[in-house]
Inverse folding.
C-alpha cells in the first residue's frame, strides 16, 4: 500500500524537498505526497490518522526550535520521530518587478526572520507580511511590481518570476532540520534521542537535578530548549536531544528515562532516530 506523506505546501517549499528525501531514506515505495496549508495542519494529518507520515521542520540554526512542531509533539505524544535530515537553506528575493520598486516583502515568518538584516540594509522601507509558506508567498507576488517574496531559488522556474537577489539569508550556514513523523515506533540505526519533560516542582535545583542525571549517564546534550506549558506563567516544558549510539547505549537511555520519571509531572519520548546532513548542490 502506498504511503501518504503530508508536508507544508504548496509545491516548491523546502519542506517538499525534505519530503522527497526523507521518503526515499525511509524506503517508501511511490509515496503519495499531500501538501497542506499551514504547519499545524501537516501535523494533524498524523494525529488524526489521515496520512501515514508527515514531514515538518523542527529546528533552524538561526531561529532555533520551530515552536509549532515542538508544541504539537508534546500535545500528541503518540507521534514519533522516525528520521531526520539537515538541509542547507539559501533564500532568494523573488518578484515580477524590480528591486527599486519593492515596498512589500512576503514569506513564512521563519524565512523573514532569517533574512531580517538583509532586508533592513537593502529594503529598509519595505513592509514584511507573513504567509503560511515560502511557496505561498511566491504565488502571491505574481503580477505585482511592488511585492517580492522570499523563498527557494527553484520557485522562480515554477512561478515564472525573476530572481532579484540571491542568497539573502543573514547567515551563510543557515540550515534547517526536518523530521519524518509517524505513529510507528521504529527501532533502527540512531544517533539522536529526543524527549521532553515537565517537572513536578518549580523548586530551586529541580531542573539541575534532572540535567545531572543526563550527565551521569554519559549523554551529551546536543539541544536543550524550553517552551511555556501554556497553563501558567513561569511553568515550562524542557525539550532535550541527546547523542546516542543505538548499539551501545540505548539501554542506558531507557534507564535514564526511568530515573527521570519520578522528577517529572510528564515525560514524553519522541523516539530514537538517525539524523544526517544533506548537500543539495
Amino acid at each position: 500500500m502506498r504511503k501518504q506523506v503530508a508536508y507544508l505546501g504548496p509545491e516548491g517549499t523546502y519542506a517538499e524537498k525534505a519530503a522527497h528525501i526523507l521518503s526515499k531514506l525511509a524506503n517508501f515505495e511511490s509515496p503519495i505526497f499531500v501538501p497542506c496549508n499551514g504547519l499545524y495542519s501537516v501535523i494533524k494529518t498524523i494525529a488524526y490518522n489521515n496520512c501515514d507520515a508527515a514531514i515538518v521542520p523542527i529546528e533552524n540554526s538561526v531561529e532555533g526550535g520551530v515552536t509549532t512542531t515542538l508544541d504539537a509533539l508534546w500535545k500528541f505524544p503518540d507521534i514519533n520521530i522516525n528520521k531526520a535530515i539537515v538541509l542547507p537553506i539559501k533564500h532568494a528575493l523573488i518578484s515580477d518587478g524590480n528591486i527599486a520598486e519593492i515596498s512589500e516583502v512576503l514569506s513564512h515568518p521563519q524565512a523573514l526572520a532569517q533574512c531580517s538584516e538583509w532586508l533592513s540594509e537593502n529594503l529598509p522601507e519595505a513592509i514584511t507580511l507573513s504567509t503560511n509558506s515560502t511557496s505561498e508567498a511566491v504565488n502571491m507576488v505574481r503580477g505585482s511590481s511592488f511585492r517580492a517574496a522570499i523563498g527557494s531559488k527553484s520557485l522562480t522556474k515554477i512561478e515564472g518570476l525573476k530572481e532579484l537577489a540571491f542568497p539573502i539569508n543573514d547567515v551563510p550556514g543557515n540550515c534547517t532540520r526536518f523530521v519524518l513523523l509517524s505513529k510507528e515506533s521504529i527501532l533502527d540505526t540512531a544517533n539522536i534521542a529526543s524527549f521532553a519533560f515537565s517537572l513536578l516542582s518549580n523548586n530551586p535545583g529541580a531542573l539541575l537535578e534532572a540535567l545531572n542525571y543526563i550527565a551521569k549517564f554519559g549523554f551529551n546534550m546536543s539541544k536543550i530548549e524550553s517552551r511555556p506549558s501554556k497553563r501558567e506563567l513561569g511553568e515550562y516544558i524542557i525539550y532535550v536531544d541527546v547523542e546516542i549510539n543505538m548499539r551501545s547505549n540505548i539501554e542506558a537511555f531507557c534507564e535514564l528515562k526511568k530515573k527521570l520519571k519520578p522528577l517529572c509531572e510528564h515525560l514524553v519520548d519522541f523516539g530514537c532516530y538517525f539524523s544526517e546532513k544533506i548537500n543539495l548542490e
Notes: The mean pLDDT is 89. DSSP finds nine helices and 15 strands in the chain. The CA atoms of residues 25 and 91 lie 25 Å apart.
